[in-house]
Design a protein that fits this description.
This protein has five helices and seven strands. By secondary structure, the chain is α+β, with helices and mostly antiparallel strands. The model has no long low-confidence stretch (mean pLDDT 90). This is GNAT family N-acetyltransferase.
Length: 177
């Protein structure tokens, strides 16, 4: 089972274990970590700073470059308080020029030790459903041209390849029907 939950400091220990499992922020797609000053620190205070950062983007477009978005943590259960945090998902409410070319509506990643268990596929499906609730009729999801696992996940989730741009494959997924 997989759930999307709002980032919450109450899950800081599981979040910290996930941060350590990733090892490098370059793999943490959908996390928003680049909006922090420095890398995420796997402590309760570091988690609190991370959660505060995610809350800023829900209020509206920021600084002319970022769009409103909703951050989720992916958990390995039904969203209960004892579930382990296994990844990140960011649902962007609209596309700016950069997101249309490369970033897409949904960015996500699953920690290395939790991969190949279906979390990415289920999280993507849940993210697409959330996009539909926001009134988005179809979402753009991208991946690097050499990321076969992500490409397969997107295609299995209904992604239809439009094209390749700047080293990214661009897929559209209908949110309803």
């Amino acid at each position: 089972m997989t759930a999307l939950v709002p980032p919450d400091v109450a899950r800081w220990q599981s979040w910290a274990a996930m941060i350590e499992d990733f090892g490098a922020t370059a793999q943490m797609h959908g996390s928003g970590h680049w909006h922090l000053e420095g890398d995420p620190v796997p402590t309760e205070a570091g988690c609190a700073a991370f959660v505060a950062m995610t809350e800023l983007t829900s209020a509206g477009d920021l600084d002319g470059t970022r769009v409103s978005s909703t951050y989720f943590w992916i958990t390995d259960g039904d969203g209960g308080p004892d579930d382990d945090v296994v990844g990140f998902l960011n649902l962007r409410h609209r596309l700016n020029d950069w997101l249309l070319e490369q970033g897409g509506h949904i960015g996500y990643s699953v920690r290395p030790s939790a991969r190949r268990r279906g979390h990415a596929s289920r999280a993507l499906a849940l993210g697409v459903r959330e996009a539909g609730r926001l009134g988005i009729e179809r979402v753009l999801v991208t991946c690097d041209t050499d990321n076969d696992a992500s490409r397969r996940t997107i295609e299995a989730g209904g992604g239809v390849l439009e094209d390749e741009r700047a080293g990214k494959l661009r897929f559209w997924i209908a949110t309803a029907g």
